[in-house]
Structures are given as C-alpha cells and as structure tokens.
From TrEMBL:
Residues 24-277 form the EAL domain. This is EAL domain-containing protein. The chain holds residues 500 to 783 of 783 of the full protein.
Length: 284
C-alpha cells in the first residue's frame, strides 16, 4: 500500500504534463472522428473589392464545436492536425465542403470566389493539385471559383517543394494568395519567386491602422510595392471606418474584417450578402 501511495505521489507531481499530453491525444482522436463524421463546419467572411465596390471573394474559415469542450479555435487544432498527420484529410474535407457550398451558392446567385487556407503540410505532397482540379471538374466550377491562401512561413519550410506545388496550382488556373504577409521570414526576393496573385497584409499592421503612424507607413509602402509587382492587395483585420478610409486612400484593392462582417455560417452569410450594399459606406 505504501508503495502504491508513493507511485501516486510521483504520478501526482507529473500530472500537469501528463494531463496535457493525454488531453492532446484525446483531442487528436476527437478531431479524427470530427473529420470522419462531419462535426466541423465552415464559416465564411467576405472580402470587399474597393474598385468594383462589391464582395468578390469569401474566405472559408473552419470551426469545430466539440460535443463536450465547446468551441475550439482553429489556432488550437490546426497545429494538432499538422503534428498528427491529419492535415491532408482535414484539408480535403475543407476543400470538398467549400466547393459543394459554392455549387449551392451559385444556384442562389451568390457569385463570389471561395478562398481556402492551406497549411505547410499541404504543400509537402504533390497530390493536392490534382485532387482539387478533379473536384472542380466534378462540381462544374471554373478555376476562377477558388483562391488558395498560403503563408510565407508555410512556403519557407521547404521552398523548392512548396513552389513546385504552387506552380502546379497556378498552371491549372487557380489563384494564389500570400496570407499574413509581413510576419514571416521570407525575403523580398522570395516573394517575387512565388506565383501569387494576391497579397494579404497581416492584420497586426491593420488592426490599429487609424492610430499608428508606423503601421500607416508600413501598410502604405507594402501596397505600393505589391502593386509594382502586379499583385492585388488585401488588408485583413479592418475593424473601423477610419482604417477603411486610410486603406482606400492608399489604393488598397480589397478589405476584410469585423467592420465589414465577422465570419459566419453559410446561411447567415447568404442573408448578409443579400442585404449588403458597399455604397452605403459612401453616403455621409
Ligand atoms: P487567417 O487565414 O489569417 O484568417 C484570418 C483570421 O482573422 C480568422 O481567424 C478571422 O476570423 C480573423 N479575423 C477576420 N477579421 C478580423 C478582424 O477584423 N479582427 C480580428 N481580430 N480578427 C479578424 P480564425 O477563423 O480564428 O482563423 C485563424 C487561422 O486559422 C487562420 O488565419 C488560418 O491560418 C487558420 N485556419 C482557419 N481555417 C482554416 C482551414 O480551413 N484550413 C487551414 N489550413 N487553416 C485554417
Ligand atoms: Mg487566410
Ligand atoms: Mg491572415
Ligand atoms: Mg493567420
């Protein structure tokens, strides 16, 4: 009995680390089930095109409402999916779901392109481009319907391999965006080697744009540089009208953020889309 107690003592002291580890394993198992049993849902957030004065794209963002634990943010479980080898299955689930939704939206005259996030692990294998092309054909969607967002850091993990996959997407006609631009470690010369169409300025430079002269300088010059490289510029994290006005003054192409609309379910988004009028922003 004494020996048992001692063992428990030891276990007790290690419980912190152990428990964390067990929770992670449990979460990985739950995630695997969630993918298989469709317990995940996609939310959608619009990007407003300032030149065309309309919503031209919608970013799909994954949501997991766990049966017992409630909402778990993608920041928490995308990492787990990557570490546990679930990423290929998760990404395929996401793309399939989003393209199926795009078909439904098309029938309802919601004519927007879908932007989907990829992780570094999705660029580590060569088979995703074919999977995506086949799905587009099956859904009778044009390649214009899809934009893939990748971060600089995802590309930098293995640049040669990642660029190869990106070129495959690009040559099939799918547009690519660099996400969270300005936070990664890629150099400007690497930026020009990526076959991208769109550059999304990280929201850390945008959230307080209206209050920070430094952010204004960074954002303004990033927009100018991006334009000189022929890229369309998106600002993410637009939370107020003053930031909108500054971005418009700088010539930013597209805006995304809570000020316009939070990510929401497909049906809520469709309702929002039907009622949204960009022009109301310009009536003083
Ligand atoms: P991201 O691709 O950079 O997505 C933008 C994140 O900023 C989203 O968080 C969005 O909800 C949030 N956001 C949008 N506008 C605003 C704003 O005005 N203010 C603030 N404070 N936040 C705003 P979310 O949905 O939690 O996603 C976080 C990250 O998780 C994404 O960053 C992306 O890297 C990853 N992620 C989300 N869904 C997927 C997915 O389906 N696949 C993969 N591989 N990654 C995903
Ligand atoms: Mg994104
Ligand atoms: Mg981002
Ligand atoms: Mg991000």
């Amino acid at each position: 009995n004494e020996a048992k107690l001692k063992k428990q003592d030891v276990a007790y002291y290690e419980l912190g680390a152990d428990e964390k580890y067990l929770n992670q394993i449990r979460l990985i198992n739950d995630l695997k089930q969630a993918i298989e049993q469709d317990q995940l849902v996609m939310f959608y957030q619009p990007k407003v095109d300032l030149k065309q004065r309309k919503v031209t794209q919608v970013e799909a963002l994954i949501r997991w409402f766990h049966k017992e634990l409630g909402f778990i943010s993608p920041e928490e479980f995308i990492g787990l999916a990557e570490q546990s080898g679930l990423m290929p299955a998760l990404t395929r689930w996401v793309i399939k779901n989003v393209l199926n939704e795009a078909v439904v939206w098309r029938e309802q005259n919601v004519n927007v392109a879908m932007a989907v996030n990829l992780s570094a692990y999705d660029l580590a294998y060569d088979d995703l481009p074919n999977y995506v092309s086949d799905l587009l054909v099956q859904c009778q969607l044009s390649t214009e319907s899809l934009i893939l967002e990748v971060t600089e850091s995802a590309v930098m993990e293995d640049p040669e391999q990642a660029l190869n996959v990106l070129h495959q997407f690009k040559s099939s006609g799918i547009k690519l965006a660099i996400d969270d631009y300005g936070t990664g470690y890629s150099s400007l010369s690497q930026l020009t080697s990526m076959p991208v169409d769109e550059l999304k300025i990280d929201m850390s430079f945008v959230l307080k744009l209206d209050q920070s002269k430094d952010d204004q300088a960074i954002v303004r010059s990033t927009i100018e540089m991006g334009h000189n490289l022929g890229l369309s510029i998106v600002a993410e994290g637009v939370e107020n009208r003053d930031s909108w006005a500054l971005l418009e003054e700088y010539g930013c192409d597209k805006l995304q953020g809570y000020y316009i609309c939070k990510p929401q379910s497909s049906s809520d988004f469709i309702q929002w889309y039907a009622n949204y009028d960009v022009l109301s922003e310009y009536q003083a």
